[in-house]
């Protein structure tokens, strides 16, 4: 995520004076609602692992989720690059390659290979 993209999302909000409505609770609710809209794209789909015919709607809903994540990070004073990198580092510790490679098990269930 570039700072230009983040600034564009924040400008959209600020041009409309919407920051006053963007408290962490309502932004968290909005992230969840948009994630549900993303999930809705696959509802009743017989081919729910394929996205080729749904890509336009996926793009739209995924962008909604990310936009709200940007707004949430801003409301909480968090740096998205920093928190995502920290989480990847933690996930690397939870899911070491030598145990997790090719496995879909939760980290608590991973075994030595
Ligand atoms: Mg949406």
TrEMBL record:
InterPro entries, A to Z: dCTP_Pyrophosphatase, DCTPP
A Pfam entry, by short name: MazG-like
Coiled-coil boundaries: none
SUPFAM superfamilies cross-referenced by the UniProt entry: all-alpha NTP pyrophosphatases
Recorded superkingdom: Bacteria
Gene3D superfamilies linked: MazG-like (1.10.287.1080)
Stated name of the protein: Nucleotide pyrophosphohydrolase
Species whose genome carries this gene: Blautia celeris
């Amino acid at each position: 995520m570039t700072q230009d993209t983040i600034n564009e999302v924040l400008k959209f909000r600020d041009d409309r004076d919407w920051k006053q409505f963007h408290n962490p609770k309502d932004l968290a609710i909005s992230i969840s609602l948009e994630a549900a809209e993303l999930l809705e794209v696959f509802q009743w789909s017989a081919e729910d692992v394929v996205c080729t015919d749904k890509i336009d709607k996926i793009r739209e809903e995924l962008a909604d989720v990310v936009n709200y994540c940007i707004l949430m990070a801003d409301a909480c004073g968090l740096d998205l690059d920093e928190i995502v990198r920290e989480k990847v580092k933690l996930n690397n510790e939870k899911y070491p390659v030598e145990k997790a490679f090719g496995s879909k098990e939760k980290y608590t269930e991973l075994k030595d290979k």
